[in-house]
Amino acid sequence: MPKLAISVEQEQAAFEEEVKAIEKQWSERPHLKRPYTARTIAALRNTIPQSYASSVQGRKLWNQLNAHNAAGTCELTFGTTDPVVVSQMAKHQQSVYVSGALCGFSEVSFPGMDACDYPWDTVPKVVKKVFSSQLWHDQRQRQYRMRHPVSERAELENWDYLAPIVADGDMGFGNLTSTMKMAKEFVESGVAMIHLDDLAIGMKKFTVGQGRTVVPTSEYLDRLKAVRMQFDVMGVNSADTLLLCRCDIDHSEFISSVVDARDHEYVLGATRQVRPLKDVLADAQAVGEDLKVVRSAWKASAGLLTYDDAVKAQASEDQFKTYKLELSKANPSIASRREIASKVLSKDIFFDWELPRSYVGQYMFAPTVKTIIERAIAAAPLGDVTWARMDSPVWKDIVEFHTEVRKVFPDRLFAFGYTGDYDYGKAGFSESAIKTLHLDLAKLGVVWQVQPIWSLQGLNLLTEQFGKLFAEEGIAGYIRTVQTPALATKPMTDGFEKLSYCGGYLADAFFETVAGEEIVEKGSAPNTKRH
Ligand SMILES: C[C@](O)(C(=O)O)[C@H](CC(=O)O)C(=O)O
């Protein structure tokens, strides 16, 4: 193998230049705080500089979102995995969402509930498919326009087909190197922004009776750092791919470990000496008892509380105030909580967070809106946009979350998901409040809003309705309800007027080019070869 034809001095000079270029690029996005230096990243890069469409799309989305922020408006988009749907979204949406839940239903060999159990490269592959289709539409539109004289072009369609794609990176699918590989694949697929959350791998659960588990704050931050590092390593401008820090802590029931003191305030412990829950459940299972009933009874018998509530239950009002005051000056760990409480109350508080651990080892967790705020604030410097995914749209919590984060980061941009099973009525929204919800969210800085699973609810409904009609009325029903309105819609739903929606003119252009025909307009005279 030949050696690289470069002297040590040249190598060092090129390296120093790259370090400077990286530093300059980073200075353009001062909201990002990296735990590593430009030198470290430069050394991790390839010797061939590479650039990615993902970076162009990331910058485009960044500009769109900041323009919304300045105007107090928002982008409203929805989830799909289908290039045909994406082609129409270009007319009304600025961005496209590729949802993990949808990919898990329609892009895998074995569909299933949104438990993030599909292969790690499923969503990047769908993004690649969608982005390639956007490029194809962009190409056919450009070719079509260029074969028309300038004088006619103003009348021709000119959509921005390259709507930036936002995609679901779930929790990164494994250890840090898996997360990096996923981020790499996303950048290569043309994504503009990915979101990464703080759920424990393999523990994303939405079904009844199975609590969700989050990872410690430190593990979540490491995931985000791994993605940021991968973006930075990938080469020229690739740092412009955006990272959306999603936080799934709302209503999570467990945390996988208590290694990070920042989480200790919210961990539940038994305040009475009881048998460990997992032993009680194992015994109950052996004799066929109803585990849900046994679990509830155990919880009641254990006096489950957070450490601070356990202190509160035994302290006078003044003692508790002193405890909180001392705590605000100390490290938030359970050890320092115990030390302060025993000083203030002159006794030890019985609190054992080992007893409620599940049979796979998670700790019981009782997060509040404050917990989500703290995590989002810790994560913000590593990403560009923040999303607190909540189980239900509780307006009071939504306002509190966004307002508190903005107190620390006044220009923070937020995302919001109109999650599939939200019951707005139950959450207290009147009809008029729902009508202005997107605008009210925009005022809080929520500039990117998504209905993530439209394809599931929307396409299911349309398909069911059309299937029934077609079975009952045959082609007459199709002509009346599909073909006639589709052809009458302006702009047409299938591309250019008088032309095939499959872009037949683009295929013709390839044949004509190979045949050496001039098919691009030079001036204003019409091209006789125009189709
Ligand atoms: C956004 C989401 O992660 C998705 O996969 O689309 C889901 C969507 C949903 O449940 O409606 C989510 O966790 O919100």
Outline the structure in words.
GO terms for molecular function: isocitrate lyase activity; metal ion binding; methylisocitrate lyase activity. This protein is α/β, with parallel strands linked by helices and 531 residues long. It folds into 3 domains: 52-249 and 369-452, Phosphoenolpyruvate-binding domains (TIM Barrel); 267-364, Arc Repressor Mutant, subunit A (Orthogonal Bundle); 457-515, no CATH class. 48% of the residues lie in helices and 9% in strands. The chain has helices at 8-27, 38-44, 53-71, 83-89, 100-106, 122-146, 150-153, 176-189, 217-233, 277-286, 291-302, 307-314, 317-328, 334-345, 369-379, 395-408, 431-435, 437-443, 454-473, 475-488, 504-514; strands at residues 75-78, 96-98, 165-168, 193-196, 213-214, 242-247, 254-255, 268-269, 305-306, 363-364, 385-388, 413-417, 446-451. The longest helix has 25 residues, at 122-146. The chain is globular and about 95 Å long. Residues 524-531 have low confidence and may be disordered. It binds alpha-methylisocitric acid.
Task: Map the helices and strands.
Blueprint: H1 8-27, H2 38-44, H3 53-71, E1 75-78, H4 83-89, E2 96-98, H5 100-106, H6 122-146, H7 150-153, E3 165-168, H8 176-189, E4 193-196, E5 213-214, H9 217-233, E6 242-247, E7 254-255, E8 268-269, H10 277-286, H11 291-302, E9 305-306, H12 307-314, H13 317-328, H14 334-345, E10 363-364, H15 369-379, E11 385-388, H16 395-408, E12 413-417, H17 431-435, H18 437-443, E13 446-451, H19 454-473, H20 475-488, H21 504-514
Helix pairs in contact: 1-2, 4-6, 6-8, 8-9, 10-11, 12-14, 13-14, 15-16, 19-20
